[in-house]
Design a protein that fits this description.
single chain, 421 residues, alpha/beta, six-stranded mixed β-sheet, five-stranded antiparallel β-sheet, 19% strand
Length: 421
């Protein structure tokens, strides 16, 4: 993670980075629009696991364990959710993420067309994995066929600056039969698509699947899901053998320390995953289980939990956590076009203001101190402006392309509907 001072980022007409480096070495470009910034310009954050439309469910069942929270509170509320409710929740979620510097989110949820429309309206980059489960009234075969058709029709990526990528969203190994996982693997592999799935999030899930198949990762291997692109959300209860299986297959993991702690699901073996060269990104999970969409908070929690677990204050540094929230998060999603500021990648950028008390020492300090201040002291409250694909979508903390007050009003109306008895 290079720290450059007095630097320039050039963005070409397609929205990609053309140059990133010292101002003295920048190529001459003639008459171009120029924006001068005081502060820090950094890559946009990558939220590697989210259900952002759940902003309309925020605060529900906040003191329950995972099983009760899902079965008794969340799933009944989601059964009442209309497509417009999901769209309103997603619109507000995208705004909240931009305000904390998140330019890309990997979403698993229902009503995917509305999620896409909301993200495009706000200007966020999203990987949309329509969720499917094997429960009464939910036909996983129909959902799988619908995703196949969508990708075959529109391609894996579409929208301006390729803002949307379509993925497969089998909820989990415990909510789907083995044949559903096998069919998902076949469809995704044929299309080069990402499979986004919850893996070994709770101890109960781990014990049930481990007794039947060895472990959740071993079941995924047996069904062919480890032969393609796969994002394992949570991955809390893994054995050393499971970690090596993920490492050999190049599987990405979305680490969600805040949600896992709030639901008492456990703490992922983060340092062991990273030592095994498993790509690990950070995820907020949903705003009904976290309950925010702030990846800076996840950076701090990830570092603190890793240090406590290992009893080592060097287990995860500020530099490490920033990489997990940017470059490594992109790697976990199998994306090479985002996560860093370098030529050829999308110009997804975040401007950090430095006029607050967090930066009282200024910017002329050693790199390690600057990065430490950025992660431990500044965080989301210092985010000022955001660009996605070269377009400014957040200016002075406010969304550019949509009205925040109207979005909050619509989300409040949706929340009243889905929580009605």
């Amino acid at each position: 993670m290079s720290v450059l001072r007095d630097a320039v980022v050039d963005v070409d007409a397609t929205g990609r980075v053309a140059y990133c480096g010292p101002a003295a070495d920048a190529p001459g470009t003639g008459q171009v629009a120029e924006t001068r910034l005081t502060g820090i310009l950094m890559p946009g954050l990558v939220n590697s696991h989210a259900h952002s439309a759940m902003t309309v469910l925020r605060g529900m069942g906040g003191d329950l364990p995972l099983g009760s929270w899902l079965n008794d509170v969340i799933w009944p509320a989601e059964a009442r959710m209309r497509p417009s409710d999901a769209g309103a929740g997603m619109r507000l979620g995208c705004i909240e993420m931009l305000q904390s510097g998140i330019t890309t989110s990997a979403e698993m949820y229902f009503h995917p067309e509305e999620l896409v429309a909301a993200a495009l309206e706000v200007g966020s980059r999203v990987l949309i994995a329509p969720a499917y489960l094997d429960v009464p009234g939910a036909r996983w075969r129909d959902a799988l066929a619908s995703i196949d058709k969508w990708i075959d029709s529109d391609g894996l990526r579409f929208g301006p600056a390729d803002l949307v990528e379509i993925c497969y969203g089998p909820h989990s190994a415990y909510m789907l039969p083995r044949e559903a996982l096998e069919a998902t693997a076949e469809s995704a592999r044929a299309r080069g698509a990402l499979v986004h799935i919850h893996v070994a999030e709770s101890r109960a899930e781990d014990q049930d699947v481990r007794s039947a198949y060895g472990s959740v990762p071993e079941l995924l291997d047996k069904t062919g899901l480890l032969d393609g692109r796969l994002l394992a959300a949570h991955a809390v209860h893994l054995s050393p053998r499971d970690i090596q299986l993920f490492s050999r297959a190049g599987i990405g993991v979305a680490h969600c320390p805040g949600s896992n702690a709030k639901l008492a699901s456990g703490t992922a073996r983060l340092t062991e995953l990273r030592t095994a060269a498993v790509p690990v990104g950070l995820g907020t999970d949903g705003p009904a289980s976290n309950d925010d969409l702030d990846l800076w908070e996840e950076m701090r929690l990830a570092a603190m939990f890793a240090r406590l677990s290992d009893e080592d204050a060097m287990a995860l540094t500020a530099r490490d956590t920033l990489l997990m929230a940017t470059r490594e998060g992109a790697a976990a999603l199998g994306r090479r076009d985002i996560g860093t500021l370098e030529p050829g990648k999308w110009a997804d950028m975040v401007h950090i203001g430095v006029d607050g008390p967090q930066f009282s020492a200024g910017l002329d300090v050693p790199d390690t101190r600057l990065l430490s201040t950025l992660v431990w002291a500044a965080g989301s409250r210092a985010v000022s402006d955001v660009w996605v694909g070269g377009e400014r979508v957040l200016a002075q903390c406010e969304p550019v392309r949509t009205d925040r007050a109207a979005a909050q009003h619509a989300a409040a109306a949706a929340a009243r509907h889905v929580t009605a008895a």
